[in-house]
Each structure stands twice: as C-alpha cells, then as structure tokens.
Amino acid sequence: MSLHKEDARSKKIIFVSNCILNANNKVLEFARYPGVFREVLDLLVSYDLGVMQMPCPEVLYMGNQRWWTSRNLYDNVGYRRFCRELASREIDYMENYHRIGYSVTAVLSCDGSPTCGVTLSSYCENWGGRPKEIPRTLVEKPGVYIEEMTDEFTARGLNAPPFLGLCMDDRDKTNSQCLDELESSLALLMGKHISAKEE
Ligand code: SF4
Q1: Which 3 state secondary structure label does DSSP give 94?
Q2: Residues with beta carbon inside 6 Å of ligand 1?
Q3: Domain extent for 34
Q4: Is residue 1 domain-resident?
Q5: Which of 116, 141, 145, 182 is the most exposed place for a label (fewest CB within 10 A)?
Q6: How far is ligand 1, taken at its centre, from the CA of residue 79, in Å?
Q7: Is position 4 within any domain?
Q8: Domain count, the chain
Q9: What are the start-end ranges of the E strands in the chain?
Q10: What pLDDT is attached to residue 192?
Q11: How much distance in Å is there from the Cα of 66 to the middle of ligand 1?
Q12: pTM score, two decimals?
C-alpha cells in the first residue's frame, strides 16, 4: 500500500447547516441546545462521515441580533444573490470531491428555516414594516439558500446530492423526533436497515 495514496479517510462527506454545530447562530428563541446538536453529530460520526459546516447566511447578512423573519421577506434579489454566492463556494468543495471520486452523502439542513429549509420554510404573508409578532406558518417550499444551491447545481450541470431536512425550525417537533427522522433517512441513504442507535 502506498502511503501517498491510501490513508484512513472515509471519502464520504456530509455538508451541514451551520447551526447544527453551533446553536449560537440561531435567531433568538430558536436554539434547542447549548452548542452542538450532539446526538446528530454522534450519528454522523457513526457513519464515518466527514462533516463540512456551511456558513450561516442569516448571520452573515443580518447579524446575530436579527429579527425573526420569513421566506417571503428574504425572497428578494439581494439576499438571493448573497445566498447564491455562499452556496456556490460550498458547491466548489463538492465539485472537487466529485472529481476525485469522493462521495458527498447529503446536504443536511434545517427544515422550517426561511433560509435553510429543505421541504418547509416559514412564511408570513403580511409581515413587514413595524416590528410585531404575527402567527408563523410553514409552507412546503425550500428556504432561499437551499433553493439557490439547487439552482446552482442545475446551472453547473451537476447532480445535486440528497437534501435532508432536520426539522429544527418546526416548533411542533421535539429534538428526539428530529433525530428519529434523521436516523431513518440516513440509514436508508447509507444502505443500512438498522439505526446507529440500535447498533
Ligand atoms: S437554519 Fe441556516 S440561516 Fe438559520 S441559523 Fe441555521 S444556518 Fe443560519
């Protein structure tokens, strides 16, 4: 075995939303744990996945003290361009991995987020103007960053990896429900029929 060509790496990588590894970037009142969602990380480690932490678009664009907001408020040209640029940098990594035969197992993002939702994002039709709290609803649409990432894959003619939505911004779901859903999705994806928890 040539030491120059073979080592211990798994050649399997998962890209995760920033706040899964650092809840300090969540909008206020949405952090579910102090720092890392430890059980999620343990699960990823159990599959020998390398973990790439994507940037947090909302913190970089609006800061940590941002207001709650919604998909329709973020659905503007400037924020879309910003998200596209961030997504493009991540896809550069993925394209490099693809070129050398490494596998990008998935993009793991936060369902319910107006930015990082995969199948669900928050939506408030009549929000805007004077700050006030109004009922928050979820729509079956991706967040702005995930949508721009998907479009960037298409623009480059690349197949996108599977997108997994961890339901962290769906406030009706508990941490343990989020984890159970992820375990099932990952088990399917990795070709295993038993969850890491049961092994
Ligand atoms: S869901 Fe996305 S935008 Fe929201 S805190 Fe996490 S990384 Fe940032």
Answers
A1: helix
A2: 17-19, 25-26, 56-59, 110, 113, 115-116
A3: 12-198
A4: no
A5: 141
A6: 14
A7: no
A8: 1
A9: 12-16, 50-53, 103-110, 121-123, 137-139, 163-166
A10: 58
A11: 12
A12: 0.93
> If you measure from the C-alpha of residue 69 to the centroid of ligand 1, how many angstroms do you get, rounded to a whole number?
12
Domain annotation covers residue 160 = yes
Ranges in the chain, pLDDT < 70: 1-4, 192-199
Q: How far is the CA of 6 from the centre of ligand 1 (A)?
A: 36
pLDDT of res. 196: 40
Q: What is the pLDDT of residue 5?
A: 74
Amino acid code (one letter) for 152: E
pLDDT of residue 132: 86
| C-alpha 1 – ligand 1 centre gap (Å) | 42
List, for residues 100-121, the tens digit of each pLDDT value. Answer: 999 999 999 999 999 999 999 9
Indicate which atom in ligand 1 lies nearest the CA of residue 115.
3
Residue to mutate, 33, 59, 108, ligand 1, most ligand atoms under 8 Å from C-beta: 59
Of the candidates 168, 189, 148, the residue with the CA atom closest to the CA atom of residue 20: 168
